[in-house]
Specification:
single chain; Rossmann fold; 9 helices
Length: about 300
C-alpha cells in the first residue's frame, strides 16, 4: 500500500514520465547533483524510473571549492551506495587564483559555478541535462519551462521558450542546442518534504539540527565549516548553536536557522509551519539570479 497521497502520486508519476521521456530522446543525458534536498529527490526518482536496473544516467556535481564538507561526503557515499556514475568538475584556474565568496561576490558565482558548469557540459557533450529546480523557489525559476532549451553557449532566453500545453513536451534540438529538464518544476517545498518523509529518503546531515560553530553576520548565522579558510573580523569568534539548513549552497554565504529539529519528522513539521522563503538563507543571491540563468547557471 502506498504511503503517498494521491497528489504526491501524481507528482511522482509526472516526474518519472519526464525522466523516461527525456532519457529516450537523449543522446548523452546527465543529472545535475548538488547534494541538496532537491537534487537528492531527483536522483531517487531517476532510480525509481529505471528500477530494478542500475541508474543509467550519471550524476554531475559542480564543486565550487567552498562546499560544505558534509555535502561532499554525502555526495560520494550516495553515488556509491546507489550505483550512480559520478563526475565532479571544478574551475581549477579559479581555485588557483583564490576566487572566493568573501571577496568576489557575484563574480565568484560566475567564475566558480557558471563557468565550470558550462565547461563540464561542453566537455561531456551532454544534450539533455536534468536539474532539480522548482518553480516555487524564486521569481526567475517561475518563468522556467519543464523542458527548457539552451543555446550554443548554454544561455537561456525566457521569451523564446516553447509552449507546454497539456503536458506535451518538445525534446527536439537544433545543432548546438541543449535542454535543461526540470521534473520537479510543479513541486512545492511542502510537496518535497512530505515526499522525503513518505519515501524515507536520506539527506545530507546539514538538514538536521546539530550543535555547530556559528558566527553572526548581518543578522544571519554562518556555520564556520572550515575555520582555517574563514575571513575573521576583529574580536570575532564562533560559538556553538543548535542550527540546521533549509537550503544548501557555499558555506560562507548560506545562513543557518536556529532549530531543535533533529529528526526528519521534526524537520518536516517545522518546515510546514515556516512563514519565510527557503532561499532567505542564500546570502549570495543578491538579486542576480535571472542574469545568472541567462548566462548559463542552473
Amino acid at each position: 500500500m502506498s504511503l503517498l497521497s494521491p497528489h504526491l502520486v501524481a507528482l511522482e508519476s509526472e516526474a518519472i514520465s519526464i525522466i523516461r521521456d527525456g532519457f529516450a530522446e537523449a543522446r548523452n543525458p546527465v543529472v545535475l547533483f548538488s547534494g541538496g534536498k532537491d537534487s537528492t529527490v531527483l536522483a531517487h526518482l531517476v532510480m525509481r524510473a529505471f528500477h530494478p536496473a542500475p541508474p543509467p544516467i550519471p550524476l554531475l556535481h559542480i564543486d565550487s571549492t567552498w562546499e560544505f564538507r558534509d555535502v561532499l561526503a554525502f555526495r560520494d557515499s550516495f553515488a556509491a551506495r546507489h550505483g550512480f556514475r559520478l563526475f565532479v568538475h571544478a574551475n581549477e584556474e579559479g581555485r588557483a587564483q583564490s576566487i572566493n565568496p568573501f571577496d568576489h561576490g557575484d563574480l565568484y558565482t560566475t567564475v566558480m559555478r557558471t563557468e565550470p558548469l558550462k565547461a563540464a557540459l561542453a566537455e561531456g557533450g551532454y544534450d539533455i541535462i536534468f536539474g532539480g529546480a522548482r518553480r516555487d523557489e524564486e521569481a526567475s525559476r517561475a518563468k522556467e519551462r519543464i523542458v527548457s532549451v539552451r543555446n550554443r553557449s548554454q544561455g537561456w532566453e525566457p521569451r523564446q521558450q516553447r509552449p507546454e500545453l497539456w503536458r506535451c513536451f518538445n525534446w527536439r534540438l537544433s545543432p548546438g542546442e541543449s535542454i535543461r529538464a526540470f521534473p520537479l518544476s510543479n513541486w512545492t517545498e511542502r510537496d518535497l518534504w512530505t515526499y522525503i518523509l513518505a519515501r524515507a529518503i536520506e539527506l545530507a546531515p546539514l538538514y538536521l539540527a546539530r550543535e555547530r560553530p556559528v558566527v553572526h553576520r548581518g543578522g544571519m548565522r554562518i556555520v564556520v565549516d572550515e575555520p582555517h579558510r574563514m575571513r575573521w573580523t576583529d574580536a570575532e569568534e564562533a560559538v556553538p548553536e543548535m542550527v540546521r539548513f533549509r537550503t544548501l549552497g557555499c558555506w560562507p554565504v548560506t545562513a543557518a536557522d536556529t532549530s531543535t529539529a533533529d529528526t526528519m519528522e521534526a524537520v518536516v513539521m517545522e518546515t510546514l509551519s515556516a512563514r519565510t522563503s527557503e532561499r532567505r538563507g542564500r546570502i549570495g543571491d543578491g538579486g542576480s539570479l535571472e542574469r545568472q540563468k541567462r548566462e548559463g547557471y542552473f
